[in-house]
Design brief:
This protein is an alpha/beta fold and 381 residues long. The chain is built from 14 helices and 17 strands.
Length: 381
Amino acid sequence: MNEYDLDHKVYSALGEKISIKGLLGRFSDPQFQEDGISRISDLHFKVKEPVRYRHDGELESIPGGEILDEDLIIALIFPLLNDKKRSYILQSKTHVIDTGFYLGNEGINFRVNLFYDRDGIACVIRMLPKHIPEIQKIGFMGNDVWSDLVGLSQGLVLVTGVTGSGKSTTISSLINYINNSRKLRIITLEDPIEYIFQSEQALISQRELGTHMVSFSDGLRSALREDPDVIYIGEIRDAETAALALSASETGHLVFATLHTKDVTGTFGRFINMFPANRSTEIATQLSFSLSHIISQKLVPRLSGNGRIAVFEILKNVSGIGNMIRSEKLPQILGKIETGAMYGMNTLEQHLIARYNDDEISRAVAISYANDPTMEQRLEN
């Protein structure tokens, strides 16, 4: 047996000894899946703690898991690394390893992040999804939303939410539908590459931060010279990337991108505030013409207790909204969304209420995940 072996059973949990291969196999265990999608997203390894896993968004300890020390973490994680990476992480406590691992027998890709905290070496392993869900199963309030999006020829589509809210899944489902139905050139700029696309009607190139590009702005600048029709930006993190995304959408490209914001109105502030204050009016004006849609989403617990379900807030840049963006009357936009059902728009609260009325989520969940503090009163009415 090699010094570091995937099958070496070194960790005590669940009443037995388990290898790192066995721990990773939990991601594909049918008891932890809902509609073929794993309800486990991450494994956490930390000195002085048992192995923990994120299940339906909650961090739980593996039953009967022994307390980890540095030697045990190394025995578990080093089989996933090559010799160069093993040597590098041991050289300095300031070093970080961010790498991938493919579990061939399960056909699953993982992202491995190894680092140090004050207790010693630590690691987080995230499963990257195996299958791209069909867009019809993503869970928009109506089919008009996604059918509108996949038919666009240009414009900026922002998909927003906190980490782990399903942004990449939503965009990947949209892109895959386009891939299967339209003869276009699609370029994705990701960190990391999560879903693997195979070119169908469209021709797709996927590029990863740190491997194929040094930054999103660098990758986007390059992509614009590569005859794209559709560009997916994994995340807009700075003014340069934001400016390039606006420019790309203005010049005939369909641009999908993510932002970390909790709702539609907050997205405008986050985007505009990336730029110096003296450019806010200019950027708001540019955004008012370039923006097509904002999709803000959350994953909330199902009433059944089996996994989570998506809820969305949808803005479409229809007549009147552009004027509000240009004049930076952002609080008024929410009212326009609430009355915009004919355009496929809805607020987060409207979708939560619909999920509650359909017995998909509990009253408590609808209240706790709402952005509107008056949600309890709205449910009573």
